[in-house]
Write a structure and sequence with these properties.
This protein has two helices and no strands. With 81 residues, the chain is mainly α.
Length: 81
């Protein structure tokens, strides 16, 4: 089998794989349904309701951290606030 035939067989196989595993709606790991924003940078709303999976626990520190993203500084929330 020549190199061109191997490349063609690989391309066909990959095309069939992509067709078989396609999804109708693009699903992001961190986003709940309908939370994805259009554009080059996608940012979801803060809070557990905007996440695809529910976190086992959610407290004020988690909420402050989620609301501060994508800021470079961590939130000032701690157990003394």
């Amino acid at each position: 089998m020549g190199l061109l035939q191997i490349a063609f067989a690989g391309a066909v196989g990959y095309g069939l794989y992509r067709y078989a595993t396609r999804e109708k709606e693009l699903r992001r790991a961190a986003f709940a349904s309908g939370e994805s924003t259009p554009g080059p940078v996608e940012v979801r709303n803060a809070g557990p309701d905007s996440m695809r999976s529910d976190p086992p626990e959610w407290d004020k520190v988690d909420e402050a951290s989620d609301e501060s993203y994508p800021a470079s500084d961590p939130p000032a929330a701690n157990r003394f606030n």
